[in-house]
Amino acid sequence: MSSPHPALARLAPAEAGGRLTLGLELPLDNDWGPSRQDADRAAGRPFGVPDLAEHTRLARLADRLGFAALWLRDVPLHDPAHFGDAGSVFETFTHLGHLAAVTEHVVLGTAAVVLPLREPLLVAKAAATVDVLSGGRMLLGVASGDRPVEYPLFGRDFPDRGTAFREGVETLRAAWRQGPLELARAGLGAERGLEVLPRTVDPAGIAIAVAGGAQQTPEWIAEHADASLDYPRDLGALRVKTQEWRRLTGDGGKPYLTPMVLNLREDPGAAPRPVRLGLSTGSRALVDHLERMSALGVAHVSFNLRPNDRPVDELLHELAEDVLPHFRTSTARTTQPESRRLQ
């Protein structure tokens, strides 16, 4: 893309002066917290399946408080024996359509759609639909997947998922390109006159963030992705990854995005300690840690709040009051031309 898609520009706004923005990974629940786990065991509820009764209200609250993005995972099949976590539970694009209707400002991202398990043309159409319904707020994170049991059930080959991923990204780009659809690999030329509708808000298409390595070389990701959506790392390992990303992308302005598991302690002055994939910390040390991440070149961090014992509402308000002001979300709203808006 010659210029950033509006959703990607919102996550890494030029007016922020290189400072990172902050988002949230869904589900917005505290089902990994110790008290909640005790209550779920006593009630016979399975681990890893969040309570979604308040998901709409909490998404609206996050939007109103000024978080930059809401991220959804793609877990086609719940595997309690080997993975345990059901992720966001709802089907990804159905859920995104709902979120597009109940929020106004947050970027709506996937972290990440397992592209080799899906038909790429249908992914292109679904993502474009969310993009239009949300006024240009869609950001498509894609991955190659890591659960071998799913692939034969979808008629896919697990060892070949890297090739399927590359072909899938190529199909997405072709589907969003202006003009008739061309897919040489499928023998389809422009003269046939097929199109994928609706057209995306940005004529250049939807920004694609590649999650992890996706069975590709770093050079391929740097060339074909609009952003890197990489795994949580300690600051030392993060420095190595962000330096590599900058070396590969040069001055192309492609942002580095990462999630973080966050156990936000009640004491703002609580010292940080590492937990799996993130931190347990008070708000003051969290700000310091995020400042360091920003200095390393991280453009956006999304918090996973599930390990907390405190109510999610309380956590969102504390983050909005004590942390967000240090990392201002762009005030620019993603908009689309009058002629492209749904009536």
Could you describe the 3D structure shown?
- The protein is an alpha/beta fold and 343 residues long.
- Helices cover 34% and strands 15% of the residues.
- The chain is built from eleven helices and eleven strands.
- Strand 7, helix 9 (235-249) and strand 8 (256-264) form a beta-alpha-beta unit.
- Helix 3 (55-65) runs parallel beside helix 11, helix 4 packs parallel to helix 5 (120-133) and helix 5 packs across helix 7.
- The radius of gyration is 20 Å and the shape is globular.
- GO terms for molecular function: monooxygenase activity; oxidoreductase activity, acting on paired donors, with incorporation or reduction of molecular oxygen.
- This is LLM class flavin-dependent oxidoreductase.
Oligomer: single chain
Give the tally of β-strands: 11
CATH class: Alpha Beta
Strand content: 5-15%
**Low-confidence runs:** 331-343
* Envelope shape: globular
Share of helical residues: 25-40%
- Separation of the first and last Cα atoms: 28 Å
Short recap of the structure:
With 343 residues, the protein is of the alpha/beta class.
